[in-house]
Amino acid sequence: MSSDFQTARETLGARLRELRVESGLGGKDLAARLGWQTSKVSRLQNGKQTPSRADLTAWATAVEQPEAETELHGRLAALDLRIPHRSWRRQLAGGHRARQEIAVRQTEATTEIRGLEVSRVPGLFQTPEYARVVFDSNAEFRGIAPTTDAAVQARMRRQDALYEPGKSFKFLICEAALYHRSCPADVMAEQLDRLYNLVGRQRVEVGILPFGTQLRRTAPHAFWIYDKGLVIVETISEELWLTADEDVRLYLRAWDWLNESAEYGVTARRLVGRARASLNLA
């Protein structure tokens, strides 16, 4: 655990203690009001445990300061940014749900998301059955508990952001991702139908990088850019959260260069439709 992360967690804990003291509640009183063990209150206040969004909402309500909820959620989102290298072994120790809940929070706190996917459909655009296959396959690969239902539900809840005014989503998808199929043909067909209908949607820009197109720079791996301030990159062993200005600028340039070769609108739909037709389903 990085020292920056621990320092930020202790700062959040100090703020929780401050809110409790202001309310005139002792630790045992607050725990009783929340229905928690007193030890949990102590761990959160002392920065020994990372709270969930639900924990923070409950805390703000219990100390009768509901207006503090937004502040606490913001502090938690900032806390997430303190861990640059996050091993999948640790993140997925209890299954996929916890990481999907982080994704929900991150998306809620972001106005613009840009992304590149090389070999699969972005999670924000996945159908429930396609997502289920992705989670099941990854759980088998890593030898972990699947928790698939909970993970799928969180991923679908994250997609609510696609319909929120003021948010925008700009994604590049390599044409290969339309053909790489780790799921049954009917599941892939439904997924491609969903993607076809998203092309050209308001606030959602979907560009396809066709086979054979000339690229100013190749696409070595997938990445997501959040509000031009955070880049998330997935490797087989870990997830990288990059916030340094130089790193973010580099990935923004990579996205812009790739975007020069992307096809949108009618042409993008035609490429998705061609992949759908290749499945030879009625």
Textual characterization of the structure:
There is one protein chain. By secondary structure, the chain is an alpha/beta fold. It folds into 2 domains: 78 residues, lambda repressor-like DNA-binding domains (434 Repressor (Amino-terminal Domain)), CATH 1.10.260.40; 193 residues, Endonuclease, Chain A (2-Layer Sandwich). It contains 12 helices and 7 strands. The chain has a 7-stranded mixed β-sheet. A hairpin with a 3-residue loop joins strand 6 and strand 7. The model has no long low-confidence stretch (mean pLDDT 91).
CATH class of the largest domain: Alpha Beta
> Radius of gyration, rounded?
21 Å
Number of helices: 12
Order of helices and strands: HHHHHEHHEHHEHEEEEHH
- Which word captures the global form? elongated
As for the CATH topology of the largest domain, it is Endonuclease, Chain A
Helix content: 40-55%
- State the end-to-end distance: 52 Å
Structure summarized in a few sentences:
51% of the residues lie in helices and 13% in strands. It is α/β, with parallel strands linked by helices and 282 residues long.
How does the SSE layout of this entry go?
Elements: H1 3-23, H2 27-34, H3 38-45, H4 53-62, H5 68-80, E1 85-87, H6 88-91, H7 97-108, E2 112-117, H8 128-142, H9 148-158, E3 168-174, H10 185-198, E4 204-209, E5 223-226, E6 230-234, E7 238-242, H11 245-259, H12 265-277
Parallel strand pairs: 2-3, 3-4
Antiparallel strand pairs: 1-7, 2-5, 5-6, 6-7
Helix pairs in contact: 1-5, 2-3, 4-5, 7-9, 8-9, 10-12
